[in-house]
């Protein structure tokens, strides 16, 4: 019964994440869970730590926070309406109560560490155990990179700097150039001050000296295992662990001396979190 209830609550969470613009009534949510509405709210809060209403509002505010941080041309009132608030004032009160910053303050200087703390309860593993993995020959790719060194909770600050560099120089247009992330360590097993993540964009020429700290790099050519991850970045680790734990041994493959890397096919400020698409590459040793 325990596993059955957990699966039902996950179904509800997935439905909410895919339908943030819809009316999410108690009758509809309890129907998806196939539970009496008189018990559903207690079961949901027992598994998630919040009510279904709070869960939906947090997910809407999470989406709104990315709009604020990375889409400066969208008005606050439009972001508020998208998040199902009737006014900018109501949105501002809820946002500040949740993140301890007003929407305008967050837009100017986001406090990402406080932001991350509000979503810790959502970062539960989903036990991803199988997926379609292909082997490809990845072509050497010249990149502009900005190194993030420090807490994983502040990666978005570095990402914003890299976006600003792209816009200012035009050397790696976000619409026509591939965007990559290269994690040199696992955030769950690395001390925060030693965590390194390179944020990268495809370029055709070397990067000139600049005030952002962006420099030229390369993702080397070679065989890679690759698969597509759909949804939140929070669950990518489960997919990667499956490849390391099972797929490599089952397919008699060895690893190459370069970290895994991600190709972001869309972005968190452009689509709902559940619609994110990330191609993951794990470098493999050459075959004799």
From TrEMBL:
Keywords, ordered alphabetically: DNA-binding, Transcription, Transcription regulation
Superkingdom, natural source: Bacteria
Molecular function per GO: DNA-binding transcription factor activity; sequence-specific DNA binding
Record has Nucleotide-binding as a keyword: no
Entry keyword Nucleus: no
Positions of the HTH araC/xylS-type domain: 10-109
The protein's name: AraC family transcriptional regulator
Species: Saccharobesus litoralis
């Amino acid at each position: 019964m325990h596993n059955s209830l957990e699966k039902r609550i996950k179904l509800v969470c997935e439905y909410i994440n895919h339908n943030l613009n819809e009316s999410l009534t108690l009758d509809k949510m309890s129907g998806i869970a196939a539970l009496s509405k008189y018990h559903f709210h207690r079961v949901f809060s027992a598994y998630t730590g919040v009510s279904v209403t709070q869960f939906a509002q947090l997910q809407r505010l999470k989406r709104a926070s990315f709009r604020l941080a990375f889409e400066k041309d969208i008005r606050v009132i439009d972001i508020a309406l998208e998040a199902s608030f009737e006014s900018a004032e109501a949105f501002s009160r809820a946002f500040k109560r949740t993140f301890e910053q007003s929407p305008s303050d967050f837009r100017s200087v986001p406090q990402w560490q406080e932001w991350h703390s509000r979503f810790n309860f959502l970062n539960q593993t989903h036990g991803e155990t199988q997926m379609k993995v292909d082997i490809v020959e990845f072509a050497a790719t010249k990149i502009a990179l900005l190194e993030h060194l420090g807490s994983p909770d502040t990666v978005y600050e570095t990402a914003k700097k890299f976006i600003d560099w792209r816009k200012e120089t035009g050397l790696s247009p976000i619409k026509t150039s591939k965007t990559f992330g290269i994690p040199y360590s696992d955030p769950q097993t690395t001390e925060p001050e030693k965590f390194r993540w390179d944020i990268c964009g495809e370029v055709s020429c070397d990067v000139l000296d600049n005030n952002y700290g962006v420099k030229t790099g390369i993702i080397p050519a070679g065989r890679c295992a690759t698969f597509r991850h759909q949804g939140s970045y929070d669950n990518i680790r489960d997919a990667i662990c499956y490849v390391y734990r099972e797929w490599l041994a089952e397919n008699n493959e060895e690893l190459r001396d370069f970290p895994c890397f991600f190709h972001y096919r869309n972005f968190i400020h452009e689509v709902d979190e559940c619609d994110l698409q990330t191609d993951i590459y794990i470098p493999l040793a050459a075959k004799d």
